[in-house]
Amino acid sequence: MGWSWFPVQLSFFVAFVATIITAVIAIIAAYFLVANKRKLNVVMETIFFLPLVLPPTVIGFMLIVVFGKNSPIGRAMEWIFGQSLLFTATAAIIAAVVVAFPLLYQTVKTGFTSLDDNVLGAAKVDGASEWKLLLFIMLPLSIRSITAGLVLGFTRAFGEFGATLMFAGNIPGKTQTIPTAIYIAIESGQTAVAWYYALISVTVSFLLLFIINQLKVDR
């Protein structure tokens, strides 16, 4: 193994696509849980936050169970795409979505719950539907929280390792991301290559976290 731009390019691609998918899911989930306050919400939120505390190997194993060749979903995906999702870039995206979701969900929910109930109530009185309320009032007013969530989600997806290694593998030129490239470089004694990838990862993470801190300062 030597230095290659592919893990860098794939990491950015996976993180970007995963962040978009996660944002849509997190916004919808946060809206419905905030709008419909039920006892079941506690159970749902507990499930949402599991990826934060579960070992990456457990997450990877569960993804293999859900999307593997022996599962109904896995067989359906194989029929649609003509191949199994395991050990593909798509698998890396799915793993990134799972681990990034709790962070994005929490920040979006925080933004929604901080909104003035009088504003939302007035919009409903004026005839705003549920979707109009979300799209034209809640999202614009929560833009800072959502932006912070997007940055956090991207950063988490960009650095995902454990679940990705199990579910997507570490195939050079196909599924190898920066974290898995660092792992293989260290295993093979190529410290210089590991340093190159590590510096890129640290730089990107620092810049993204700096953006989040700036958003907090500008409030």
UniProtKB/TrEMBL annotation:
InterPro entries in alphabetical order: MetI-like (IPR000515), MetI-like_sf (IPR035906), ModB_ABC (IPR011867)
Compartment(s) of residence: Cell membrane
Keyword Kinase among UniProt keywords: no
Function according to Swiss-Prot or TrEMBL: Part of the binding-protein-dependent transport system for molybdenum; probably responsible for the translocation of the substrate across the membrane.
Record's keyword terms, sorted: Cell membrane, Membrane, Molybdenum, Transmembrane, Transmembrane helix, Transport
Protein name from the UniProt record: Molybdenum transport system permease
Membrane topology, record value: Multi-pass membrane protein
Transmembrane segments: 12-34, 46-68, 80-105, 133-154, 194-212
Family, similarity comment: Belongs to the binding-protein-dependent transport system permease family. CysTW subfamily.
CDD domains linked: TM_PBP2
ABC transmembrane type-1 domain segment(s): 8-216
